């Protein structure tokens, strides 16, 4: 039982807050504040206290019964706390409010008296203390930061492609002040994981001694016994850079990171509902709304504390370790070959490299925001902002030769000539695609992809597909890719390339041609056709 006399004297005579009293006595802050509120409302007793009154006497006047006397009012239906605790442990987002509403409704239907919500919660906590062996961790100022992902996700529509993308929300909290940080992410890979952890430290204004994380693959590789977990190398390097220690939670033991679990619950049951009402077209737009709501939440007064999260955070940030002068930067590494379009492909995006490295291998080092390209000997070549969407092109015109159209095998006339061998519709689509980007070299891969369909499908199928693309004004590689198989099926055997000749028909060192292919008329006609095409190109 609490020392009620000591609490009253410290509060009224020494003007100490409930939080300070709880800290001095080593008891629950909510218990001290609840008692002070009940004492203020009690009409039978007030400060100064009557001479000789005991703690039991104070409790009987304030609460109507002596704690621990077993004097429970038997006329009130006792809740089934064992079943309630089971639901709280197994059902996602289950709350005591929901369970109390169900309990009170059932009692009302049966004509029985029931506990009010406040009494219901107090008895539930007491039941848990008596029936469950739980570990309780008192929050120590500046000791740790807890991090996790929220279970709820959001949708974002790419304004350029119309693609629906998923936003995952990262959540971090300082348990002492309960100060919360959150950020939306389109990718949860290691570079983005490191980045949001950096942002959390910036937001909190310092580094805690410990970082308690979930067992996600971005943070922990193996955590079988919790004693010696294997950390993700990059996350371990991040911790060493910042002078902190990673402490993974026990597997399937949410109590080891109860503060962030509670923070996730607050977000999902509160401000996330406001965000759900909006449609987002960029991650920046989503985070702008999230941070606005988060600032209001952190400055909202506590229900059972005197101040708000922001107030206690201002106290806590003074005790945090200082931030390092520079962020830890995660670097992905890869070797790639500069293609005929003077670009390298990295993470489904394309970056130009100087013409001197055409067809040579280069080394790529990329952070979450920057892509740096080096020669294999370590010479720095160029740097690009990291692409934010698939298929994005980054081209420096100085990387291209002045006459790049005729510089390599891949050029406009080369693809047009190949398309003419298929048909006029294919040629028209190729010409349109060549003009569809700021730099022609950015279209070469799409042209090559379209013409390569003739390896599996007939020229007739590709011609018909391009004809439909022109009619629908969808002269794009993706339309051809998604349509040609259907057209080939409709054409039957004529939609596909002929089967490979049997081994008996093959001639070692050569290939089989029909007799008419080598006739003088065919060769002259082909020569005249190519000469006319070259003149047309020169005239243009």
Automatic annotation (TrEMBL):
GO terms for biological process: DNA integration. One of its GO terms (molecular function) is nucleic acid binding. It comes from Bullifex porci. It comes from the Bacteria. Belongs to the transposase IS21/IS408/IS1162 family. Residues 132-330 form the Integrase catalytic domain. PROSITE patterns: INTEGRASE. This is IS21 family transposase.
